[in-house]
Predict the 3D structure of the following.
Amino acid sequence: MPKAHAAVEILGSLGLTKMFTSIDFFHQGYISVESVKNMVKASLESSLEVSVNARLVGQPDDKNEFNSATRSDLKFLEEEDEQCAVARILLDSS
């Protein structure tokens, strides 16, 4: 997580006050959930506001393999530690 802390520190010194990221089945083929998790934790530890936009396919309540994978990836925000739970989760369909 040192890379995430270093990046957040630089961005914060440049005036960043809110970190916004997205997570979905397609993004996670290129960016690991662990990387998103590290960014969220480092941002919250630096007192940045955090929003995670969960991109879903179809309607938010549609049950398909893509939405199931995205919801599974979001579990770290709910289960892993209390600090991640303060990140705002935005559900959006594409």
